[in-house]
Amino acid sequence: MRIKKSPVMTLVCLGILIFAGLGWAKTYHFASTKIDPSATGDVDISKDKNGNSNVNLRVEHLAKPGLLTPPANFYVVWFQQSGDNPENEGQLQVGNDFRGQLKTTTPLHNFDIFVTAESDPTAKTPSDQIVLRATVHE
What we know:
By secondary structure, the protein is mostly beta strands. It has one helix and nine strands. It has a single domain, classed as Sandwich (Immunoglobulin-like). The longest helix is centred in the N-terminal third of the chain and has 17 residues, at 7-23.
C-alpha cells in the first residue's frame, strides 16, 4: 500500500519542526578552576522568537565568595564575544545550599560565559578570580 504525501501536510510538519526547534535548549557544562575546583554548573541556551539567546545558568558546590582566597563579596557573571570586552550580566547569588541560578537574555550566539569573584557586583571589568567558565556556540 502506498501513502500519498500531501503538500499541505508536509508544510505543517516542517513548520512544527522549525517552531519546536526554537524552544529546544542546548546545554553547556562549566569547567571549574583551581580557585574552587569543586564548583560545577550548566548553562542551558534556547532561542526566543526574535532569535535572542535565553540563558539559564545553574551552579552547585560553589563556596561563598568570602571563603575564597583572597576573599570576595560577590560572584558576577560575564559574557564575552570574541574580540569584544566582557559584559557584566549580573550578580550570581549563592544560597546556603551552595547553589545559584541566573536567567537572562542576550543577542549573542557565540560567546564565553565566566563567573568571577568580585568586591563590587557592578564591576566594569572582571577580576582575575575566574571560578567557572563555558563557551557557547549556537
